[in-house]
Design a protein that fits this description.
The chain has a two-stranded antiparallel ribbon. By secondary structure, it is mostly helical. The longest helix is centred in the N-terminal third of the chain and has 37 residues, at 2-38. 76% of the residues lie in helices and 3% in strands. α7 (124-136) packs parallel to α9.
Length: 233
């Protein structure tokens, strides 16, 4: 009799906990929807975290990681989703890993994730990311392949955003590729600075506001003039 009573109490406790979890989940689901309406990122993160604890979901985890990434909380995003290259990852999860790893200055790991995205859905924007990361890791031949693909397939209305100035700005994507092509040209033949500068000039004709290209040109011209100045001394 005592054993039956104990089983009955445990069963009631289980049902009670299930009901409590369901009620809590509904509460945080409503809270999540309200925070979304208000544009409260911290509130959305709080709600999704509680929902994932109460009822773990790969889709919600990916969404939470994406929100962290979109809010420039890249370490938190990767702590949520991991950094491993997994074939089972959703496109959103791979995107989060790629963007956050790049932002945290992990070009080799970021490159792996961008390559996965590009295999799934190739496009000029991903080619730009691949080329940029390959230049950083010293793969100039690979970067050249991605650059040529990008120049060929970039549409006139495609833009790429840059953030090296206090005020972010956009330039024509083809101009951005020409700038990368100039960097590859210089790294492949550092004695032919004029060829690299000519490519940057081509980029600046398309996008006169391309501040990063202007800075690269100034650096290249200064490097070309330095030996001559030293010889005069």
């Amino acid at each position: 009799m005592k054993k039956l009573l104990l089983v009955f109490i445990l069963a009631l406790s289980y049902v009670g906990n299930a009901q409590t979890n369901t009620d809590l989940f509904k509460h945080y689901e409503a809270f999540y929807n309200e925070m979304r309406k208000q544009g409260d990122v911290a509130g959305v993160i709080n709600a999704l975290t509680h929902m994932n604890v109460l009822s773990p979901s790969k889709e919600r985890r990916d969404t939470l990681a994406y929100i962290y990434t979109n809010d420039n909380q890249h370490l938190q995003a990767l702590n949520t989703i991991g950094i491993e290259k997994l074939d089972t990852d959703s496109d959103l999860a791979v995107q989060v890993k790629a963007i956050s790893l790049k932002a945290l200055n992990q070009p080799k790991r970021a490159l792996e994730q961008f390559e996965v995205l590009n295999k799934r859905t190739p496009n000029p924007y991903l080619s730009y990311e691949l080329a940029d990361l390959k230049i950083q890791t010293g793969d100039y031949a690979g970067a050249s392949t991605d650059i040529e693909y990008g120049i060929t397939n970039a549409k006139d209305d495609m833009k790429y955003a840059f953030y090296e100035r206090q005020q972010p700005y956009e330039v024509n994507l083809k101009a951005a590729f020409l700038h990368l092509k100039a960097l590859v040209q210089y790294n492949n033949d550092k004695n032919n600075i004029d060829a690299a500068v000519a490519l940057i000039d081509e980029a600046l004709k398309i996008a006169p506001n391309f501040n990063l290209a202007s800075l690269s040109k100034q650096a290249l011209v200064a490097r070309k003039e330095t030996p001559a100045t030293e010889e005069k001394k």
